[in-house]
Amino acid sequence: MAQLVYIDETGSVGKGASMQPLLTLVAVIVEEGQVQPLAEEFRNLARRHLGHLPNDFELHGNEIWGGSNQWSTKSPGELIAVYEDAIAALGTFNVDVSHATIHKQRLHDRYNGWADGNAYLLALQFLLEKLDSYYPQSNKILIADEQKEHQLRAVKMVADMQEWRGGQVPGAKLKTVIDSMHFVSSHASPGVQLADLVAFALQRKWNQRDAHPESVSVLDRITSAINERTLTWRAAWPAV
User: Fold this and answer.
1) pTM confidence score
2) Alpha-carbon distance 48 to 179, whole Å?
3) Which residues are bridge partners to 103 per DSSP?
4) Mean per-residue pLDDT for 136-150?
5) Which of 100, 104, 146, 173 could form a disulfide with 127 if both were Cys (CB 3.0 to 4.6 A apart)?
């Protein structure tokens, strides 16, 4: 059976990017037979916590954590329950996590700024090499959240890595990644939504901007559950 690899990004663009030193690509690895059960679980999550399934239902880490949009009427305790309920899907559906992180300032310093625009592709290369080597038994299909500024370059790099090790830096030829890299709207992909939830929690934990003891405790529980499903190397690059 194939593995579907859902990828999301955090820490590179958008509001507050300058305050986030790390760019991270997170992948959740879902076995083919668990894709539909995961989608049904997220629909059931909406029914449990909202009482119905909205037409535009979608799980976003920042919305749940901040209590915005459809979660605006929920208490802090209810929001915590939603987030932990969603993260529990990792264990329920035997979903593994992998991530690759670029330390943006160290990258800038190491290459005098010339590689700053390649941070996303570097993270993607390292992530795919991890997945290819650690999970050699299954073919993989790559599905990522829409990233218009990166899509064409990412598709080209994946093709080059499949053919001749053509990453941003010398690396390994991909053996188990089949087809191209597919970009989809997160609204249509519960797998991408799960990757978003994981990515948001990890970045929130690493940035250490939550001072309230309850928030810190909640993040500890959530990231502990994520770490239990993360079997590949985790250190940021470049190293100190």
Assistant:
1) 0.95
2) 37
3) 22
4) 92
5) 100
